[in-house]
Amino acid sequence: MRMAQLAPEVYKAVIGLEVAAKKGLDPALIELVKIRASQINHCGFCLDMHAKEALAAGESVERIVQLGAWEESRHFYTEKELAALALTEAVTVLTDGFVPDAVYERAAAHFEDAELAQLIALIATINVWNRIGVTTRMAPGHYAPGKHKG
Predict the structure, then answer these.
(1) Domain 8-135 CATH assignment equals 1.20.1290.10
(2) Of 62, 65, 87, 118, which has the most beta carbons under 10 Å away?
């Protein structure tokens, strides 16, 4: 399914949300969050896209590969990145129907209020893209860095 052609207003709105959500956030952190959420959601298309974008931006293969086991590979990431990854998992999974206070407080300790708001919006946005990608069976492997509008 080609969402951009079949629901262009929705597609443009999600692109707009993504552009707005990224403002003020570190580009490396953005890709780490997008990759981790995409791993959890099993979105191969988004994994392909954001791993390639991260690599093109200079991220190390090692840090990308270790994202699936970030808690066991803490030494690859800063405390701020670890807090963002924990929040990404909590928001993406919503295990008990909410984000645990400890996870939120940890993120709040590493991000200014406005930056934390941006991070929450970024996590929500990649989850929207993941759900579109998974539902419409978007195939990974064809993405080239620099093509993404968001």
Answers:
(1) yes
(2) 87
